[in-house]
Write a structure and sequence with these properties.
mainly beta, Lipocalin, eight-stranded antiparallel barrel, globular
């Protein structure tokens, strides 16, 4: 009887620890919101060789025409927003925290360093763009898209 209880306890513990690992990953589809809380589009975060990138996967259903990164510089100038890599060089730093080399604001063309923090068991991602120190920046909330 005692052995049976240990097996049940081990299975229960394993199930919840694996669930926690899945929730602590930033990879997946996220609905992005601007500073005012209005949705702006969908970002797919992908992991490749230990680094994460963010790609604009789709706009909103209300978008009537294709949009382009007209204010962007360099190779991103006038590129379609759909499929554009807008975040790169992101690596895990601590449980639920990530730091990145760059995030693009496709509406202004400006790039910033980025800090990502998972909240609400992996359902919310705080996305902070900043210049220099994280103290000088702004934070937006993205929501994980369930049942992609």
């Amino acid at each position: 009887m005692k052995m049976h209880q240990q097996i049940v306890w081990f299975s229960f513990t394993l199930l919840f620890s694996c669930h926690g690992l899945a929730a602590s990953e930033i990879a997946g589809l996220w609905k992005a919101y601007d500073d005012a809380g209005k949705p702006t589009g969908y970002i797919r975060i992908l992991e490749k060789n230990g680094e994460y990138i963010g790609v604009i996967e789709k706009g909103l259903p209300t978008d009537k025409e294709a949009k382009y990164c007209t204010p962007c510089r360099g190779e991103r100038k006038n590129q379609p927003l759909i499929g554009l890599t807008m975040m790169q060089g992101v690596v895990a730093k601590a449980d639920g925290e990530y730091m990145g080399k760059e995030i693009l604001d496709p509406f202004t063309g400006h790039t910033y360093r980025v800090k990502l923090t998972l909240k609400e068991a992996g359902k919310t991602l705080l996305v902070r763009g900043f210049i220099g120190m994280s103290l000088f920046g702004r934070t937006q909330q993205w929501r994980r898209v369930e049942n992609e």
